[in-house]
DNA sequence: TGGGGCCGGGG
DNA sequence: GTGTACGGCCCCA
């Protein structure tokens, strides 16, 4: 018997079960960094609702499949007790019996038959990945470099040991084709590079990529990494390698013991005994990244990036003409990928440990799935069945309230913000799929304007979960105060508290998501309804107090800062509404256009905030965005009208004289659907279609950069891919009138500068008449 | 000239 | 494949 500390990172089916009957395993690392496999036995199961007719069917089916166990049990479904048959047994038999029962009783009468055994094993035993456990196990031996144990018991460790020693390997790949998109049936891999923190391992496909893959397989076994990290591995590198291997008749044996990699849940790729991290998935659903590039991610974590990056559309040309530069660039990429992983390790492993999703696909899972996994984990403690997603139709409901701003420049404005408004509403009003009712009655708080009520006699699952998240976050933050800000543990805890906050904020959106197991249309509608009511009542009170309200959106109000009255206002919110609000920001000056969700301000600590305006939008060119920023900054800092106009005049002048680079005039737009689904002739779609005709596969999520060139007709006929354009062919007049002028007009109009003035400047600059308009 | 398609960002 | 509200461009009738 051995007792060891093990950092669990995955759950799987063991490679070799032998005669032990062990059919499931936890994978982990010991404190020396050895991979361990902890085998045990787990009978998979599902539930069948006990009702008229199901007893007879169950009886028949059980006789037909000996070895299956059936027990009558009670569980909760949306808070109500239900009687069920728990059917359990060997995985193979269980699958067959499940199919028969689905057919005979209807899918809606079976529960948890749609959850994988590995997940059930983890949640039933309350095991979380990326967490240390004190493990009691019997040593079985070593196989393929993995220490195999028979698991006897485990309990979470109180003290956090950080991470075990991890061998991390970054990978990147180059494949080019003369015909655009590389095709694994046709195009060999040109180049792969690995980086382990010290050395590069390079593989050239010059003598065919069969040799390349053989060498790669060999080196993976030799280097034996615990973590394989890439940027777009799951969407490009791994599927390409697999398809290429299939073509060449060679396996992609990058798992431990040469196990082949395979595609798994949500489209991620599994490597036996290793953690596969794709950092592209991290940037893709993080709104702070505009273009979703590795360069942005590197910049975000403070890593230098090259002056000249290469877009995949440019790879073929570089491979042909400037191969050394491309290879150097790809070597920078693996270095950056490696370094970024270490910067994000706490976020990735923290998310995995909190949600219970193994690190392999915690980034692949959408935020809805992450939230759901956490709920499943928590539902076990309440004896709640995991509900199913069956037969739903999309419906929409009203959201937050947005006030029309008072146009113009305002001084001394306070932004009052409700603390976590929707999570607070969920907790305070007990809004949850299992508490929502549609009729008034005993123990029900009913909202007749909406025709929806909530039970107050039972605590709902989501309010319970949100409360847990808030409590746990408070504990983590308390812990943080007792340790040094410089310690690694501080960073781990900081990531954790952020994750807990994000999860709490996700629960409202989750409840309104059509694909959610705990979906509640009425619940989500009630939350926004209560949010609107709260903000309306607050505004009314603020008016009563004589505060000047200039704007408001969902959970915030912008008011003239009168310290005493604001204090009184906040107290009132607390005592009368039972909600918490705070001063989120103080602006020396704020500029509102007539439009909602678009403004800019200068805070008391001299920060420029720009919200919704073109400056923050990637579908405006860099030249226009930078100009708007400068004009806004000057305006908010009190510059004269002439000074602002000069700023505009200078850029117009630059453009007219051709003093700009292509990068400054590129407009980036995302492809959000399959090309064939587009009905409109928009510029970026026209360019995407052209690329497509050149053989490029245009995927959802890709960014198309284009410029408008001189010529006749609608814009979509004059949009050119940025790599095909030079400054000489750019339509300067388009950029002056449709990019530079509008962004300046937008922010100067509220202070009384007319379009006409700007238009005259735009017309006159460079023609010798511009001085006339000063 | 106004409505629809489309995109991106706000809270 | 978390929600809704919103503005503004471009195209087209």
Tag the structure with descriptive keywords:
single chain; 774 residues; alpha+beta; 6-stranded antiparallel sheet; 5-stranded mixed β-barrel; 28 strands; 39% helix; 22% strand; DNA-binding
Give a verbal description of the structure.
With 774 residues, the protein is an alpha+beta fold. Strand 11 (191-195) and strand 12 form a beta hairpin. The structure holds a DNA duplex (11 and 13 nucleotides).
- Count of individual helical segments: 22
| Radius of gyration, whole Å | 30 Å
As laid out across the biggest beta sheet, the strand order is 21-22-17-23-24-25
From the helix content, strand content and strand pairing, which structural class follows?
Answer: alpha+beta
Distance between the termini: 89 Å
Spans of at least 5 consecutive residues whose pLDDT stays below 50 are: none
Overall mean pLDDT stands at 94
**Strand residues, percent:** 15-25%
Percent helix, as a range, is 25-40%
Biggest sheet descriptor: 6 strands, antiparallel
**Molecular shape:** globular
- The count of β-strands is 28
Fold blueprint:
Elements lengths: L1 E11 L11 E7 L4 E6 L3 E6 L4 H11 L4 E9 L2 E10 L1 H15 L4 E2 L5 H8 L6 E13 L2 E11 L11 E7 L16 E5 L4 E5 L4 H15 L3 E4 L2 H16 L13 E2 L5 E2 L4 E4 H6 L9 H7 L14 H7 L1 H33 L3 H4 L4 H15 L26 E11 L2 H9 L6 E2 L6 E4 L4 E4 L5 H21 L6 H24 L9 H24 L4 E5 L2 E5 L2 H15 L3 E12 L6 E5 L4 E4 L10 H15 L4 H16 L5 H4 L1 E4 L12 H11 L9 E6 L10 E3 L10 H17 L6 H10 L10
Helix pairs in contact: 1-2, 8-9, 9-14, 11-14, 12-13, 12-15, 13-14, 15-16, 17-18, 17-21, 18-21, 21-22
The structure holds a DNA duplex (11 and 13 nucleotides).
């Amino acid at each position: 018997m051995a007792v060891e500390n093990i950092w669990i990172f995955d759950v799987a089916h063991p490679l070799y079960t032998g005669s032990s009957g062990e059919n499931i395993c936890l994978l982990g690392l010991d404190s020396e960094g050895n991979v361990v496999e902890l085998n045990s036995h787990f009978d998979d199961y599902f539930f069948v609702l006990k009702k008229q007719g199901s007893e007879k069917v169950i009886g028949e089916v059980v006789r037909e499949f000996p070895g299956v166990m059936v027990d009558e049990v009670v569980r909760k479904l949306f808070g109500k007790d239900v009687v069920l048959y728990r059917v359990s047994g060997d995985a193979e038999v269980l699958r067959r019996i499940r199919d028969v029962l689905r057919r005979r009783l209807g899918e809606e009468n079976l529960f948890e038959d749609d959850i994988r055994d590995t997940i059930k094993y983890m949640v039933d035993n309350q095991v979380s990945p990326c967490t240390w456990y004190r493990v009691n196990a019997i040593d079985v031996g070593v196989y393929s470099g993995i220490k195999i144990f028979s698991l006897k018991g485990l309990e979470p460790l109180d003290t956090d040991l950080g991470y075990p020693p991890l061998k991390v390997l970054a990978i990147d790949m180059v494949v080019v084709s003369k015909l655009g998109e590389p095709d694994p049936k046709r195009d060999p891999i040109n180049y792969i590079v690995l980086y382990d923190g010290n050395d590069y391992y390079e593989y050239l496909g010059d003598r065919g990529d069969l040799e390349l893959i053989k060498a790669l397989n060999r080196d993976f076994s030799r280097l034996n990494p615990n973590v394989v990290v890439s940027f777009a591995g799951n969407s490009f590198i791994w599927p390409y390698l697999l398809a290429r291997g299939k073509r060449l008749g060679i396996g992609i044996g990058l798992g431990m013991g040469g196990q082949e990699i395979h595609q798994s849940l949500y489209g991620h790729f599994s490597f036996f005994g290793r953690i596969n991290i794709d950092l592209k998935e991290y940037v893709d659903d993080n709104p702070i990244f505009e273009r979703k590039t590795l360069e942005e991610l590197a910049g975000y974590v403070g890593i230098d990036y090259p002056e000249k990056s290469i877009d995949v559309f440019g790879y073929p040309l570089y491979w042909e003409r400037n191969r050394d530069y491309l290879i150097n660039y790809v070597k920078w990429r693996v270095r950056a990928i490696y370094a970024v992983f270490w910067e994000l390790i706490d976020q990735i492993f923290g998310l995995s440990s909190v949600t219970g999703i193994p690190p392999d696909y915690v980034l692949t899972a959408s935020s809805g799935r992450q939230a759901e996994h956490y709920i499943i984990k928590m539902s076990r403690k309440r004896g709640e069945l995991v509900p199913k997603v069956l037969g739903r139709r999309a419906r929409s409901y009203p959201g937050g309230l947005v006030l029309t701003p008072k146009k113009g420049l305002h001084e001394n404005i306070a932004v009052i913000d409700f603390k976590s408004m929707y999570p607070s509403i969920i907790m305070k009003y007990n809004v949850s799929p299992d508490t929502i009712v549609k009729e008034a009655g005993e123990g029900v708080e009913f909202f007749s304007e909406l025709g929806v009520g909530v039970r107050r006699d039972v605590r709902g699952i989501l309010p319970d979960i949100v409360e847990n998240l808030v409590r746990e976050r408070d504990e983590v933050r308390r812990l943080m105060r007792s340790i040094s800000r410089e310690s690694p543990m501080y960073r781990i805890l900081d990531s954790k508290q952020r994750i807990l906050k994000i999860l709490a904020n996700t629960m409202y959106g989750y409840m309104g998501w059509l694909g959610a197991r705990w979906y509640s249309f009425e619940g989500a509608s009630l939350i926004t309804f209560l949010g609107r009511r709260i903000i309306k009542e607050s505004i009314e009170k603020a008016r009563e107090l004589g505060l000047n309200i200039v704007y408001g959106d969902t959970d915030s109000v912008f008011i003239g800062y009168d310290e005493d009255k604001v204090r009184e206002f906040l107290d009132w919110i607390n005592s009368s509404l039972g909600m918490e609000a705070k001063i989120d920001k103080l602006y020396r000056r704020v500029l509102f256009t007539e439009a909602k969700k678009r403004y800019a301000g200068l805070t008391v600590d001299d920060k420029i905030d720009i919200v919704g305006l073109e400056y923050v939008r990637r579908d405006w060119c860099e030249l226009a965005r930078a100009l708007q920023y400068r004009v806004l900054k000057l305006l908010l800092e009190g510059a004269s009208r002439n000074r602002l106009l000069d700023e505009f005049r200078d850029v117009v002048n630059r453009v007219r004289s051709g003093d700009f680079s292509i990068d400054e005039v590129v407009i980036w737009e995302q492809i959000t659907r399959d090309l064939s689904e587009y009905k409109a002739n928009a510029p970026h779609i026209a360019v995407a279609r052209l690329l497509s005709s050149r053989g490029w596969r245009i995927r959802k999520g890709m960014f198309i950069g284009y410029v408008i060139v001189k010529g006749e007709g609608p814009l979509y006929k004059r949009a050119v891919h940025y790599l095909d354009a030079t400054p000489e062919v750019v339509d300067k007049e388009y950029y002056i009138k449709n990019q530079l002028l509008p962004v300046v007009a937008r922010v100067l109009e509220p202070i009384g500068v007319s379009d006409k003035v700007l238009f005259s400047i735009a017309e006159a600059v460079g023609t010798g008449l511009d001085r006339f308009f000063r």
